[in-house]
Each structure stands twice: as structure tokens, then as C-alpha cells.
Design goal:
Elements lengths: L4 E2 H11 L4 E5 L2 E4 H17 L7 E5 L4 H12 L3 E4 L6 H11 L3 E4 L10 E2 L24 E4 L7 E5 L4 E2 L13 E4 L6 H12 L3 E4 L5 H10 L4 E4 L1 H8 L3 H6 L7 E4 L6 H11 L4 E6 L6 E5 H6 L6 E2 L4 E5 L12 E6 L8 E4 L4 E2 L5 E9 L5 E6 L4 E3 L2 E3 L1 H9 L4 E11 L3 E10 L5 H9 L10 E5 L12 H8 L7
Parallel strand pairs: 2-12, 4-5, 4-6, 6-7, 11-12, 11-13, 13-14, 14-15, 27-28
Antiparallel strand pairs: 1-10, 2-3, 8-9, 9-20, 15-16, 16-17, 18-19, 19-22, 21-22, 22-23, 24-25, 26-27
Helix pairs in contact: 1-2, 2-3, 6-7
């Protein structure tokens, strides 16, 4: 096994080698490695004075900022486990997750949600008399604990099974020393958190956005000579809707890899990006915070296998299982089960939930899909999101992809509502960014979907339906509409 060093030791080494080198760029300001090192050292002493011990969890409910990184690095320096949370969560939800995490300290967030635990507000500074010198090297028992499950109403924590140490000389999906990486999503989500972590600890430059904005993102790709960026389909969608002349004028010559993750990328959207930046620079990846499995596909492979999310990477395995537990042959839709090289339990553990596993240790995230004859995986939708209408199985993701392909649509969500005749009827909630009426949208969908997949009812809203991480809470949308839902 390659030599492992702690996360804090890895960054300290970089800070001592080049203290003046930029570590993070955020809102036009630049934070050097040396400053991040000394500020996190002082913060770690503040946290220790407040009672944080090795192995404790620290809930970090801070917005995207320099402060978030300073807090995370300070937590690792104490051998504690960072637990990032959305700073925008409703107090009730935040309270549930904090109670589950039972942290020694809460940073930011709602004081009432902290449940009497020690809390530092946003912007809290360490007293200047605390030393900013080096700490004793410690390795946290887990790299992070990520909150999940809000869309189902059952919060859980996904705790990394691996300690906070790594091989600093290994590359992480093309991220290495000097790589300029754009982080457009919220740091409390797995992708942005891990990508920024890997960039910082490997000597790259993190370019951070406070919130995603398509025009700003395009400007940053040019101004900061970005080489690597991970975006969810919602972001890709917003960028491809920018005026063609604006996209054409951007200098993307430094760009090496754009990776779509977080949800299946609609085929029309993937193809549009391939046409824009080239097949050699466009990728799609699939996996979960649990890291029980993962796939990757390049644009060139995608053109040969359109709609696929690729083949398993890193020795991980995928198989498709039917409702009776049998492994299905290529082309048949079933539940996607995965197995990491180290077997069940080698990548994570849950707090507040139980894994869905087969008798031999393969696990599922609840996604439905199939593999083709060449072993490429295709996702259909989440098992729990499937709608049965008139005896037909409909996967909302397919309908949403067709709706989103209309040039006036910004985002959409499709849910099932009770129907006396059909059992459930498809209801589409659509956020339009230009004038759009139901007849025009129905005409658009008639060219793309079989009749039973076209929603029976439409609702137009003004606010985006997905957050900056591309997530949509269909269960909440459905619940909000049940009291007034009627068959047309």
C-alpha cells in the first residue's frame, strides 16, 4: 500500500513549501496556503478550548466561503470529523440532523437547532492570542460525515469508512498539483466537498462560487484558466441556455475535463455539450456518497453508447437485479446493485439508516437501470420515484428530460398524483424562463414521448425546482399538492 499521510500534514507540507501560493479564489479574493494554514491552526485551538476531541464530529453549517475551508481544516487538525450541513436548511430539519450527528461543536446554523450544544456563529474569529503554530499530527477516524436523505424525510449521515489520510502523490480523476478546479456547487454536498478537498490537499487551486450562476461560471472558466470542473445537469442546462455568441466568445482553451454527476444527464444535453467543447473533454460519472460503486464515461464512449453513464471504475462492480432477486441479463431493467473492491462496509457506514443489501453483500442506492452487451450502465430513475399510471411504469427522469429540452424551460419535476381511473396520473411542474403555455409544451412532448408518458396536467411556477446541487424533492412536491389534487 502506498505511504499515507494525514490530511493536515499534506496541506501543511504544501503551505511550508509555497506559503504565498494561492489555495482558494472566492468572489475575486485570493487566500494563500500560508494564511489558510495559520488561520486553521488558530481555529483548531479555539475548537479544542471549546471541548472538541479526536474522533468527535463538528457540524459545519457555513455557506461557501474561505471560512468553510478554514473550519474544515481546523477540524481535521484536531483528529475530528467534519460534518458539513446546508446553512439554508429549515430549523426543524437542521435540528434532526444535528441530533443524529451529536457533534461536540456546531459552526453557523440555527442556535435553537443546536439543542444546547456549543455553537459558534458565522464569522466567528479565533482570539489573536491563540497560537497559529503547528499542531500535533492527528488522523481523524473518518474523512467526513455527509448528511443525506432529506428528500425521503428520513435524515441520515453517511460516515466515511476510511480515516482522514491518503497518498498525496496519487491523482484524483485528473486532479493533481497545480490543477485549477472550479467548484460551482454547495460544499455541503459530496461532490463539491470531495473535489475541493482533493484539490487543496494535492496542491491545486480551488476556485469557489458562492452560488451557481451560468454567466459567472463561464467568466470564471476563462479568467481562472479552469482545467477541471464537476457540474450537475441543472448547471449544464443553464449554461447551454446562455446566448450562443456569449458561449462562443469564452476562452475555454485551458479546459481539460467537464464531468456531469448528481443525476442522469439527458441525452440531448450531453450531446449539446459534446458539440460545444468536444467529446475528449466531456465526461459523465455515476456514484453515491457511499462510494459502493461508480462508473465513468468519456464523450467519445458516450457517442458510441448514447445515454450510458459508463463502466465501473477502480475495481468496482455493477449488476442488475430483478424483483425476485435474480441477476438480469443485458437490456433488462432492474435495480442497480454495486460492490466495492473491499466488499460491503469498506467505504462507509450509516447513522440513522440501514443499507439495502443482498445476501452476498451487494448494495443498492435505489436506482433503476440496465447494462448493455458491452457492460455499459444506463440509468432509468430512482425506484421510489417510479409512477404507475394505467398499469404502465413511467420514470419521471425520462419525462423531465423531454420537458427540459424545450428552449423555454428552466427546470421541471414530474410526480404522480392520485387518480380514480388510472391509479396515478402524471403531473408536471414546470419553471419556464420564457413565455410558454400548455398546448405548446404538449406539442413539444408529442414528438418525444409515447402518449401515456405525457403528463395529464401541468403547473407553471416561477422559481427553479432544483437546488444548486441539482436535487429536487419530489416527495415534498407531491405532499404539497395532495390536498388539492383532483382528476381532470
Amino acid at each position: 500500500m502506498p505511504p499515507q499521510i494525514s490530511f493536515p500534514a499534506a496541506f501543511s507540507r504544501l503551505a511550508h513549501l509555497e506559503p504565498g501560493a494561492d489555495a482558494i479564489v472566492w468572489e475575486g479574493r485570493r487566500l494563500s496556503r500560508g494564511t489558510l494554514e495559520t488561520r486553521s491552526n488558530r481555529l483548531a485551538r479555539l475548537y479544542a478550548d471549546l471541548g472538541v476531541q479526536p474522533g468527535d464530529r463538528v457540524c459545519i453549517a457555513l455557506p461557501n466561503s474561505f471560512e468553510f475551508f478554514e473550519a474544515t481544516l481546523a477540524t481535521w487538525k484536531l483528529g475530528a470529523v467534519p460534518t458539513p450541513l446546508s446553512a439554508r436548511l429549515p430549523a426543524a430539519e437542521q435540528r434532526e440532523i444535528i441530533a443524529l450527528a451529536d457533534p461536540a461543536l456546531v459552526l453557523g446554523g440555527d442556535p435553537e437547532a443546536a439543542g444546547g450544544r456549543k455553537l459558534l456563529p458565522v464569522g466567528a474569529e479565533a482570539p489573536p492570542d491563540l497560537s497559529d503554530g503547528a499542531h500535533e499530527d492527528r488522523v481523524a477516524p473518518a474523512g467526513q460525515a455527509i448528511a443525506s436523505g432529506g428528500s425521503t424525510g428520513r435524515p441520515k449521515l453517511i460516515v466515511d469508512a476510511n480515516p482522514a489520510s491518503f497518498d498525496p502523490d496519487a491523482s484524483h480523476y485528473g486532479i493533481g498539483p497545480g490543477t485549477h478546479v472550479l467548484i460551482p456547487g454547495p460544499l455541503y454536498h459530496t461532490g463539491p466537498f470531495l473535489n475541493s478537498r482533493e484539490t487543496l490537499l494535492r496542491g491545486g487551486l480551488v476556485v469557489l462560487m458562492t452560488r451557481f450562476d451560468a454567466a459567472e461560471c463561464l467568466d470564471l472558466l476563462t479568467a481562472e484558466r479552469i482545467q477541471w470542473v464537476n457540474m450537475v445537469p441543472t448547471m449544464l442546462h443553464r449554461m447551454i441556455r446562455l446566448p450562443e455568441e456569449q458561449r462562443a466568445s469564452a476562452d475555454l482553451s485551458a479546459l481539460e475535463r467537464v464531468v456531469s454527476t448528481g443525476a442522469p444527464c439527458a441525452p440531448w444535453l450531453m450531446r449539446a455539450w459534446i458539440d460545444w467543447i468536444g467529446a475528449d473533454r466531456m465526461f459523465e460519472a455515476y456514484g453515491g456518497t457511499e462510494r459502493i460503486g461508480g462508473t465513468l464515461i468519456s464523450g467519445a464512449e458516450w457517442l458510441a453508447h448514447p445515454g450510458s453513464v459508463g463502466k465501473p471504475t477502480g475495481g468496482r462492480q455493477v449488476r442488475i437485479v430483478g424483483p425476485d432477486g435474480d441477476v438480469l441479463p443485458p437490456g433488462e431493467i432492474g435495480e442497480v446493485f454495486m460492490l466495492p473492491p473491499g466488499g460491503q462496509g469498506s467505504t462507509y457506514r450509516y447513522l440513522g439508516a440501514e443499507a439495502t443489501a443482498s445476501a452476498d453483500g451487494w448494495e443498492t442506492l435505489g436506482d433503476m437501470g440496465y447494462v448493455d452487451e458491452d457492460g455499459f450502465l444506463y440509468l432509468v430513475d430512482r425506484r421510489t420515484d417510479m409512477v404507475v399510471t394505467g398499469g404502465e411504469n413511467v420514470y419521471p427522469a425520462e419525462v423531465e428530460a423531454a420537458i427540459d429540452a424545450h428552449p423555454a424551460v428552466g427546470s421541471s419535476a414530474v410526480i404522480g398524483l392520485p387518480d380514480e381511473d388510472l391509479g396515478q396520473r402524471l403531473h408536471a411542474i414546470v419553471q419556464a424562463e420564457a413565455p410558454l403555455d400548455e398546448p405548446a409544451l404538449r406539442t413539444h412532448l408529442a414528438d418525444q414521448l409515447v402518449r401515456y408518458k405525457i403528463p395529464r396536467s401541468f403547473e407553471f411556477v416561477s422559481e427553479p425546482l432544483r437546488d444548486d446541487a441539482g436535487k429536487v424533492r419530489r416527495s415534498r412536491l407531491r405532499e404539497d399538492r395532495l390536498p388539492r389534487s383532483k382528476s381532470p
